[in-house]
Specification:
By secondary structure, this protein is mainly alpha-helical. It contains 4 helices and 2 strands. The chain has a domain of about 60 residues: Histone, subunit A, CATH 1.10.20.60. Helix 2 crosses helix 3.
Length: about 110
């Protein structure tokens, strides 16, 4: 029996279909040819299989840790700044689509 087959029995690999990869590529706005789609389906399946393996690790006695350095994010308060009307008009004119005084962007999710 080949090692690959034994490992697949112990750690069943989650296979990602090429259709799923095509959908992910579409959402990420990536143009993939069929060779790349097949390659990435295999690579992404391997990553998912590794996560599946990690999910089996017993962590019940491990303290939850987000980071260990003790550093904290320092953020500033967002302040609304008025823009000169000429500059605002110039910037809006450069946008491909506008809605009133706002730049209109295409939706990422359907």
């Amino acid at each position: 029996m080949a090692w690959g087959h034994i490992l697949d029995t112990i750690y069943p690999i989650m296979k990602l279909s090429t259709a799923a990869v095509k959908k992910i590529a579409e959402l990420a706005r990536l143009a993939l040819d069929s060779k790349e789609t097949t390659l990435y389906a295999g690579q992404m399946s391997d990553v998912l299989a590794y996560f599946e393996k990690l999910n089996k690790v017993d962590t019940k006695d491990i303290e939850v840790t987000a980071q260990v350095t003790g550093l904290e994010n320092i953020t500033r308060i967002d302040k609304d700044k008025n823009c000169d009307a000429k500059i605002q008009k110039s910037l809006l004119e450069q946008a491909p689509e506008r809605d009133g005084g706002l730049v209109k962007a295409k939706s990422v999710f359907n």
